[in-house]
Amino acid sequence: MPHVYDHPRAALTVDCVVFGFDGGELQALLIRRGLPPFKDTWALPGGFVRVEETLDEAARRELEEENGLRNVFLEQLYTFGSVHRDPRERVVSIAYFALVKPEAVAAATDAAEAKWFPVSDLPTLAFDHAEILTTALSRLRGKLTYQPIGFELLPRKFTLTQLQRLYEAVLGHHLDKRNFRKKVLSLDLLTPLEESRQEGPHRPAQLFRFDPERSDRLKERGFLFE
Amino acid sequence: MPHVYDHPRAALTVDCVVFGFDGGELQALLIRRGLPPFKDTWALPGGFVRVEETLDEAARRELEEENGLRNVFLEQLYTFGSVHRDPRERVVSIAYFALVKPEAVAAATDAAEAKWFPVSDLPTLAFDHAEILTTALSRLRGKLTYQPIGFELLPRKFTLTQLQRLYEAVLGHHLDKRNFRKKVLSLDLLTPLEESRQEGPHRPAQLFRFDPERSDRLKERGFLFE
Q1: What ipTM was assigned to the predicted interfaces of this complex?
Q2: Rounded to the nearest 5°, which phi and psi values hold at B32?
Q3: Does chain A have fewer CB atoms within 10 Å around its N or its C terminus?
């Protein structure tokens, strides 16, 4: 096979920002590095891209190998290519972000040296992983304001209070309950269920599920100009 | 320098989707390939990433070398990594999209074998460049509905009619004039100028300029939930 570019080449990695939500705070999954560089420092799950696999396949393989995570919501985030981001040699990293349902959050830490951290209280991270994480958080915040995306972090059935807690955790500040409900319901994204859920001492709260078809329509038409 | 990954490596390229607007249709800048594979086929401007330059630097260098374009709005789009997207060997491409002001549109075609095509009537493209272009168009459409982004395609001073034509060209359909003006002005992104511009036989139309500071505030707070 002829080579198209006979010069030194960067190595390619994938790095995954994995978000989870425990009902209170937004969490990110980190791995403690066993080898230098940055030995014993926390880092994003990830690894080298094999020449025979796609980028998505590499990201999913790493999440499964390192964290036992399968079938998670996964989206390419951004490609990081600063020349000296790896002290050893040129490494370009295609970053992903993953959203994990509460059921899978516990499973993900079965892997040795993997741990969830609240995004408001992260340890020092290896390489440029702090920058990657900040980029992912900013993307998640941005998406939340114009796309129905947060549902991947919730149980399949949820109350409006749970949904509001998630929005507050991601956006990092309190939201007015009445305005929030009005806005969310006006988007016509949720299907009310016959069931309800006991939340505190009040009367049971209605459960909803997310409607992917309505969501697709909303994504297509956008929020502002249509 | 120790090598971190002693296995075959993909070659890395950047490919740029360059959009321009001539007042009527949204245009994309293409280059006719002089060498195989896909010799004589139209393709996106781009080339190999050098091991000592960042990805952004590679994209800007290619746009300048191939199209004489400098100081354009440039944003990373997505990284394309299908295993067989290049028939020769594994090539991963970091795609960018660029927005070019009308003043620069003419200059960009000084390069031999470069040409603007309306996005509604594109030729067959080399590699997976049709997919890259579709992704860029979809990003541009999406952004237009939630971010003040189209202004990079307009002259510095423009009328609301020019702005509406741009939105219509990007979105691909007609917009109601009154609704459009109401929405745009409500975003408080435009600074009215003392000048006006003659448009057809009617009374002169007010000129505006885009206010980047207001835009930053708007980006930060988003449109929907804040």
Answers
A1: 0.89
A2: -85, 125
A3: N
